[in-house]
């Protein structure tokens, strides 16, 4: 469970009401509770043998919840951070635990992919495979049709040019044996129930962990159009283009015995935060749950919307949004999309009294940093100026982490054990 203290930063030390709202959002999408609640209301279909396969950042917690209520023959978990105590309990129940690489796949991801293929190849039509799928799985497990070096080069190129996660995963699905329904295809006709935590905009099942048990509506032509969109044809290995393969579509018979069910999402977290804010006396408004675009520009737009809302709404109020922005790398600074979004809001909020903007990664990991996100106030720009720091300078080199670390306004929660995309909250008190 998340406690309000996990969100304590300099600017929130006098705002416990805000940390309670943040904690309520996170607890509403607790991975273990989501699995238990779903199984309580939706019992698994009968089967001779039940196997478990966990994939993603929340895989340990989700698989542990399944094991507490279901007799399992065997299992495999592939994750980023395996909590030692949970991993030990899983292994005592014949469930292997592996760590892959994220956000760029590595040898750990390849080893995980090989283990997954071996694991599902033992299944028969008499078996039930329960998949516990969450975000991060696309990088953590791979069985690529190209070399690892080529896959890493493609992933890095897409991340650097600001490619959206759905675009990155479209290419991954057409280059991998396990993605885009590949795991279901390799399971020998076993019955499959996938319980899924959505970390993508609009909850598109094929995009979550690149849809290992989901049909893929995209074609090779879609993958090629993404390469053309970002002018990557001459910047990526030639093997990428020659190795694209069509994926199983919705009418493929391999999906006749497959159920894909989303059990937690960004929308659930947003509505939990809204309910808690209303209980705390705030007027609230959910702006949208599908925010995308360049992080710094989205941050500025949200700050301007907060400034405009001050003229129209009665204080205290809270604006809420969710989604997943992107960052186009221009410098060699340190940060992540949530920190960059917050940095983009600093100058637009300058001078406003009693306001806050928060951008938070629900998995607790914003980019390759130790922070989950950051907090901005109307005083952030002036505080930074006294330190000889200006938001525009740090934006120019993608160095949001250094900026907010100096202000004491990084949110550090550690890995959360869940993953339902990003949350953005704006407050006027």
Write up what this structure looks like.
The chain is an alpha/beta fold and 429 residues long. The protein folds into 2 domains: 4-28 and 267-428, 3-Layer(aba) Sandwich (glycerate kinase, domain 1); 31-264, Glycerate kinase, MOFRL-like N-terminal domain (Rossmann fold, 3-Layer(aba) Sandwich). The chain contains 17 helices and 12 strands. A 6-stranded parallel sheet has the order 3-2-1-4-5-6, sandwiched between helices. Helix 2 (31-41) packs parallel to helix 3.
User: Ends: how far apart?
Assistant: 27 Å
Average per-residue pLDDT, rounded, comes to 96
Approximate helicity band: 25-40%
Q: What is the CATH architecture descriptor of the largest domain?
A: 3-Layer(aba) Sandwich
Series of secondary-structure elements, N-terminal to C-terminal = HHEHEHEHEHHHHEHHEHEHEHEEHHHEE
CATH fold descriptor of the largest domain: Rossmann fold
Q: What is the total domain count?
A: 2
Q: How large is the share of residues in beta strands?
A: 15-25%
Structural class: alpha/beta
Extract low-pLDDT stretches.
Answer: none
Radius of gyration: 22 Å
Largest sheet: 6 strands, parallel
Give the strand tally: 12
According to CATH, the homologous superfamily of the largest domain is Glycerate kinase, MOFRL-like N-terminal domain
Could you give the topology of this structure?
Layout: H1 16-28, H2 31-41, E1 49-55, H3 59-69, E2 74-79, H4 84-91, E3 95-99, H5 107-121, E4 127-133, H6 137-140, H7 148-160, H8 165-173, H9 182-185, E5 191-197, H10 220-229, H11 238-242, E6 258-264, H12 266-279, E7 283-291, H13 295-309, E8 317-323, H14 337-349, E9 355-361, E10 373-377, H15 380-386, H16 391-396, H17 400-407, E11 410-411, E12 422-428
Parallel strand pairs: 1-2, 1-4, 2-3, 4-5, 5-6, 7-8
Antiparallel strand pairs: 8-12, 9-10, 9-12, 10-11
Helix pairs in contact: 1-12, 2-3, 3-4, 8-10, 13-14, 14-17
